């Protein structure tokens, strides 16, 4: 991939990475492997023991696809996917295809994505220009076009990975290098010297400090609690529902492609470990939360921003009825025999995207504070890059951001009101849902 090469960078003697999700762990790996950092101490701190139960990199499955309407991501995902196929946790990767479909304006995303994949020419794609063809390719039992979509394509070279399995596989490899000091503890605040506009590490919730020359915030949807990201990144909660299925049912579905209908964002990934997962890649739930301004020492200075609220905050948390019903309606439309009343979703969770205004990652030095770097903004599609995103992040740290991502991953020149964000065109479903309101409605109906 093309990169600017001129910058000569000072190698920090200590680097602290906040967050051991996909972005943080992959960065730790890339730094540990890079001889330029052989004398640098590398610390990764996470608020939860690994793998964090509520982070977005931990689930039974994540789609691994180069199917993007933006060609740079298609190219980077193709590189990542070759790693999944070969030397990166291949036992956790399953190449059973992905059908990307729609019945509404999201068809634009579908056709751009197909063009990008075909331009690379390495993947086996098949156009599905009717609901019947989608039904056949995906082995759907139901005939309802609302579920399947009416047009789309299947990329037989896409797949999915067991996210938890792959993260544990990767963590073991990073640990074996014996270069990274892993710490469990919650970061409370970034230590900012406002006289020099510089960052020297973080303060933990027990008031201890972790000092570093370079602090990298890779705290996923929680990053917005550590620096002010209003108008730049926001946490959106996505509905994920699970249903136990029998070994025979799993066998029948496990070689079928994932179906992702972008018009409502609902998707079903082939089951694993006897669990079927139905979820929504949508605009998500907002959770506006008022917190002390993360960059201020004045406790009366507050900001309100959307932050995650998870099963760690409330172990009884489940997806609001609205979301469960949507997932259920999708299952009824595509596999009615699985969606009988005697077979409820037995688990559900809200998983938090770190959304940016256009679906691009945010991988950049902070524009104001020296010694602070941010690697986040996964926008619901970051996991597949686990094998390679750390190398890209190190390139950005060194001022060698790949040319085609220079603008995309840069710190935005201005903050944009969240209601004006356009996204990447891949999201469907309801807009403007607020978690507290939906949870309250659900409680009233129970
Ligand atoms: C429901 C859902 C479905 C998705 N599907 C796909 C998919 O199919 N394909 C795909 O490629 N991507 C998918 N994604 C997106 C992908 O999972 C994310 O982009 C990626 O995992 C983000 O990784 P991360 O490291 O930024 O964040 P995370 O994995 O959330 O990691 C952040 C870490 O920071 C830690 N942390 C937070 N605050 C603090 C603190 N104060 N102190 C210390 N530690 C802290 C957390 O405990 C956590 O471990 C999906 C995401 C969700 C939620």
TrEMBL record:
InterPro entries: FAD-dep_OxRdtase, FAD/NAD-bd_sf, MTOX. It holds the Pfam family DAO. One of its GO terms (molecular function) is proline dehydrogenase activity. The keyword Oxidoreductase applies. Residues 15-394 form the FAD dependent oxidoreductase domain. SUPFAM superfamilies: FAD/NAD(P)-binding domain. The keyword ATP-binding does not apply. Keywords: FAD, Flavoprotein, Oxidoreductase. Belongs to the MSOX/MTOX family. This is FAD dependent oxidoreductase. It comes from Cucurbitaria berberidis CBS 394.84.
